[in-house]
Amino acid sequence: MSTKTILFVAEPQAVSGIFPTLKEAGLQAGLADNLNGALQFVRKSAPAAVFCRPRLQGFTAEKLLAEAQADPGFPPVVIFSRGGTADEAQRYMELGAHDFWLEPLVYEKIQAVLPRSNTPRDVAPRGAVDEPEPAARPASAPNGGGKSFQIIGKHPAVLRVLALARQVARSKATVLISGDSGTGKEMFARFLHHHSDRADRPFVAVNCAALPEHLLESELFGHEKGAFTGAINRKLGKFELASGGTILLDEVTEMDLGLQAKLLRVLQEGEIDRVGGVETVGVDVRVLATTNRDIEQTVQEGKFRQDLFYRLNVIPLRLPALRDRGEDALLLADFFVAKYCAAYSMPRPPFADEARQWLLEYDWPGNVRELQNLMERAVLLAGSGPVTSAHFLMDPDAWQPESLEAAAAETDVAPPETGDEALSVMPLHEMEKRLVLKSLNETGGNRTQAAELLGISVRTLRNKINEYKQLGLTVP
Q1: Nearest Cα to Cα of residue 49 among 34, 21, 68
Q2: Cα separation of 46 and 76, whole Å?
Q3: Within a domain: residue 229?
């Protein structure tokens, strides 16, 4: 299945906060800041939806809606704004808008606009293992889900976890998935959802480590208008958005003790209380949770409620570290090389024997996520191959291009285009990288200030910086 593409017609800073989530979901996105750029992108890339700010410099959404009305094949247009009235929303709807939203943008609403067939979740998020079935034999999700999962690996420890996951997938039992960072915990959670009888309902993931307690409570349970400063409208929480489906509480052990008590009540009673609300709201949600900590030790230290641990740990799944999976590292390497060769339209390079031996002997502190990043790097550096351990770039200073003269010649590049000739649309990952580097330069390398400018957490920014450093970029 092909990857879904969307288009934002907006200022970069208005949408940068949603970039990491979209990237994790496998969505490709373009960014335009004028009508011509937007129309050019629609004609060339056929996005599934367009998300447009009401006004930009020299542009109004009415012009785009007029073009959309004149073209029966134009994708749905959603207008999103920092503020607005019911009359304004009605006016845009009368002009042909699919919907009118108030910021901030959230992935679940974006996903709901896209056609249900070939949803962006059909593409594995970066950093997760796009796998489960030994010998690469696909298992389709029930209820017409159509997603084929391949858990790449033949090690007995992986097969045991897979067999248990398959056995409990159709139940409503809570599952606690533990394992080191990068072992593929979220992908196993998605496997459970897609092989359950809830596969045609939402799968909603919440990173419990990314938000402070007061924001995480609102994120999980929602809030009423006026519940706190800035709560200008009612907001549905992730539990309500996942109604009938599955919610994943990622890194649940990072949750504050006070919020843990409220979560326990939700699990026991099947009800939530919105922040500032006076009535309980019933929810029908299957709960999965992940942790990279020794959760029993965390309980003993008094940092995690014992009763909540027992409630979450009905079905425990423990994922093995990649260093303990033997030759699975080679199978995964082949899988990711094939994936990135297809993504970059490059020939598939062979592996040198010493590179394969290196893969078997390396300790893999970052597990499958690290291997995936190394294989993308190797594909880009090896060209037609063969792939050697030098292409893994574990020591960036030791790597040399094949031709220093050619590399020197290529540094004499033309200045960037300006004015009307400048490109107004670029790939999402490139725009994301430019925004991150620009914010760091403008803040003198202050990551806290840079994260605030981008509208993301410091942890997300740190992950991006590490990713760019692994690609050989110099980051402030």
Answers
A1: 68
A2: 11
A3: yes
Under DSSP, is residue 38 helix (H, G, I), strand (E, B) or coil?
A: helix
Domain presence at residue 412: no
Helix/strand/coil for 7: strand
Half-sphere exposure of 193 (CA within 13 A, CB side): 27
In a domain, 389, yes or no: yes
26 and 108 together in one domain: yes
Provide the 10 A C-beta neighbour count for residue 109.
15
Domain match, 258 and 380 both:
no
Range of the structural domain that residue 461 is part of: 426-470
Per-residue pLDDT of the chain (476 residues; tens, 9 = 90+): 456 889 999 888 888 778 778 888 888 888 888 888 899 889 888 898 999 999 888 888 999 998 888 887 889 999 998 877 767 877 888 788 888 888 778 887 888 788 654 333 333 333 333 333 333 332 333 333 334 456 788 899 999 999 999 999 999 999 999 999 999 999 899 999 988 999 888 899 898 888 777 788 888 988 888 777 777 777 888 898 888 999 999 999 999 999 999 999 999 999 988 888 878 889 899 999 999 999 999 999 999 999 999 999 999 999 999 999 999 999 999 999 988 888 888 888 999 999 999 999 999 999 999 999 899 888 888 877 789 888 887 766 555 555 444 444 444 444 444 444 344 455 666 777 778 887 787 777 778 877 777 777 777 888 888 877 776 666 66
- Partner residues linked to 79 by β-bridges: 52, 100
For residues 114 and 26, give the distance between their C-alpha atoms in angstroms, rounded to a whole number: 13
Cis amide leading into 156 (omega within 30): no
The Cα–Cα gap between 51 and 81 comes to 10
153 found inside a domain: yes
Best CA proximity match to 249, nearest among 290, 190, 307, 284:
290
Cβ distance 297 to 245 under 8 Å? no
Return phi, psi of residue 31, to 5°. -135, 125
Q: In whole angstroms, what is the distance from residue 232 CA to residue 464 CA?
A: 32
